[in-house]
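Intended use. Records like the one below are meant for learning the mapping from a protein sequence to its folded structure. Do not use them to infer anything beyond what is encoded.
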Amino acid sequence: MKNISIFGTSSDAGKSTITSVIAKIIQDRGYSVAPFKAQNVSNNAMVADDGSEIAIAQHFQAEVLNIPTSYHINPILLKSGRKSSASLIVNGKVVANRDVREYYRNISELKPIVKDAYRYLDNQYECIVSEGAGSPVELNLMDKDLSNIFIATEFDTKIILVADIEKGGVFASIWGVYNLLPKKLQKNIIGVIVNKFRGDLTLFDEGVRIIEEEFKIPVLGVLPYIPFNLGFEDSQSLMNYQQRSRVDAKRIGVIAYPTMSNYNDFEPLIADDNISIEFIRQNISLDSFEEIILPGSKLVIKDLTWLKEIGLFEQLQQTKTEIFGICGGYEMMFKRVIDNECTESIVPTTVEGLGFIDDDVILQKLKIVRKGRYRVFNRELEGFEIHNGVSKKYPLYYQKGNIKGTFVHGLFDDLKFKRYKRETIDSFVGEMIQRLDVDRIIESLLLEKN
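Structure written out for the chain above:
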């Protein structure tokens, strides 16, 4: 069976979700399947089964397929760094903070790493479904693109295009991407999926005719817009969440600072109709909320500074509302955040924290990346840690009065949410399968591997 690449005709076209759907379709036909993304840029990460750090999107795709996770499915991960730099994670481990321009100048050094990971999966599975990144035809960056052109060319993958009709300009995006692709890759295109259509799908019948007859590109399906509040890859996808809450639902405010991370912690809350979530991006009154959550943060010092600049810092210190901090948000609750090793700062730096907890947090170079069973707040749970900050007095969690915090992610997950998650995935995939030309997709892949 041939491997396949999922290319978007624009950013946020729905590649991550479609990758999950296509992979599940192939798996349901009896083939072993693995997801893959050569390079992901995201602050939203998970700890894989092998103890490595990978992007949430690939972890979620593997979860849909119920297969083990490892760094092989996402060998390169970039996370926000100070100023113009990024934290470079290779094979699940932090290797450096690199200036973005330096990173792209030395991109060829990463190609062997990507190829090794891909080949490992190729030997383990009958099919790899590889997610692209952004648009595959950014002409000034095509030689630096690990996730699209490089993979599709190096491994001669079949290709599905995904076009977001919600953005407008769907015909231009399909025509433009197809005709700007190298001729060799054009021949490998199975067809295009038109994604996120709102309203009566038959209204696009003429659009299907135009794409197939005038562009000569098969349309594999027109998919309706269905809210899917799972597997949020980035802040853009997070903002597409939809929640149906009861009138008397508990109001929870989540402080959405600039480098907020691991917001998948809130998927169980979004799924609960007894809770109403609001993401707070400016200095609004916190009095109307029954609980405030300080989420994870990729750059704790930067986000603390933001809280102080916009006025939320002082509000948080004065409120009697319950405040719950997770990971980076937990670190902000201490007296001080001390960065003598320049983990986040250019020079050794100490900043004032919210002062709720009688200890300092020390930022260390060596990141703690761990998953397992924890006992937190007098309950046991499966969770994970990804953090540079450490506290000697409260190494795992703290609770007193209206203040509660922990380094552990996954606190809101429970059996009810896990059942909801599986049912939602199965329902969503089932709906998409009904609207896709599954036979054409499978027949296009049933060719002998090179």
